[in-house]
Amino acid sequence: MVQVTRVPEIAYDCDVLVIGGGIVGLSTAYAITRAAPGTRVTVLEKEPGPARHQTGRNSGVIHSGIYYRPGSLKARYAVRGAAEMVKFCAEYGIPHAVTGKLIVATDRAELPRLHALVQRGRENGIPVRELGGSQIAEYEPEVRGLAAIHVGTTGICDFVAVARQLAHGSGAEIRYGTRVVRIDRRPERGVAVLTAAGDVVRGRMMVNCAGLYSDEIARLTGDDPDVRIVPFRGEYFELARPELVRGLVYPVPDPAFPFLGVHLTRGIDGGVHVGPNAVPALAREGYEWGTVRARELGSTLAWPGSWRIARRHWRYGAGELRRSLSKGAFTEAVRRLLRGVRGRPGADGGGGPGPGGTA
């Protein structure tokens, strides 16, 4: 005789459980509830509020998509996403502006790369205007270069305000101060998440939007992604004379390196941020040199990929480290774009960058 055991029904707290309350997690919750009204979504965020890390610690730029390979998902989503972000900000009264930006070549070796960006931008459907050296002043009178391009759809916004509106508009349950410590995932039973407070939250499915800890969350589910988060910190200064810059000014990026270089960004608040550089962080949320988390640093150093990055980019990394430790070196990098900047380590000189935050 065959016995049939009935599996007890599970009481789910939600249909979809989202881990992470930054802009990716909150956008996910917002999109799900808009696409499928009535879906119960719960967002778990370890911090006491939204947008405490990458979302709230960046240049505040709505990127156009000019850097991405035509036809790629990145290119398509960046172009579409920029338009949707501007529309979202306008609809909800979030501070924003479509400023456009200049990408400036200051060396002849950069001219072929600048021309390649023109072609890439046009293939991606982005309005791009080529400028000779004398035309740069039409947009930025204080900026000097051999040539430049103006990208019309780049903008700026308050991403923290965007995140708050996404949280409010999603209708999701947002649980702040909720750190995930264990995950039990079974195909027929959904996901059960144990929090640091000892609570268990059950969902039919889970979406990992945990940002700097997304690889660790993935491993908690039983997956073993062959990737690691290698943390880098970007440091900013504030320009003491913001009137020198009208909008956004970028150098021509070198495709050999995964960074855009030190640039100038006029923010929503009217201040001009200079940066960021890119230096290794000694913790995943290490916003200062003094923030060290031994376990995280040990994990980074033990992963072979970290050493591959170091070997491949050691010259570039040495320059970034120098700019982190020397304000004069940082100012020197800015002066390639903005000749009126003055300064020396340890002092604010005229239009030189003053003390700023890190992000």
UniProtKB/TrEMBL annotation:
Pfam families: DAO. One of its GO terms (molecular function) is (S)-2-hydroxyglutarate dehydrogenase activity. The keyword Transferase does not apply. Gene3D superfamilies: D-Amino Acid Oxidase, subunit A, domain 2, FAD/NAD(P)-binding domain. Its cofactor is FAD. Keywords: FAD, Flavoprotein, Oxidoreductase. InterPro entries: FAD-dep_OxRdtase (IPR006076), FAD/NAD-bd_sf (IPR036188). One of its GO terms (cellular component) is cytoplasm. It comes from the Bacteria. Residues 15-292 form the FAD dependent oxidoreductase domain. PANTHER family: L-2-HYDROXYGLUTARATE DEHYDROGENASE, MITOCHONDRIAL. Belongs to the L2HGDH family. This is Putative L-2-hydroxyglutarate oxidase LhgO. It comes from Streptomyces afghaniensis 772. The lineage of its organism: Bacteria, Bacillati, Actinomycetota, Actinomycetes, Kitasatosporales.
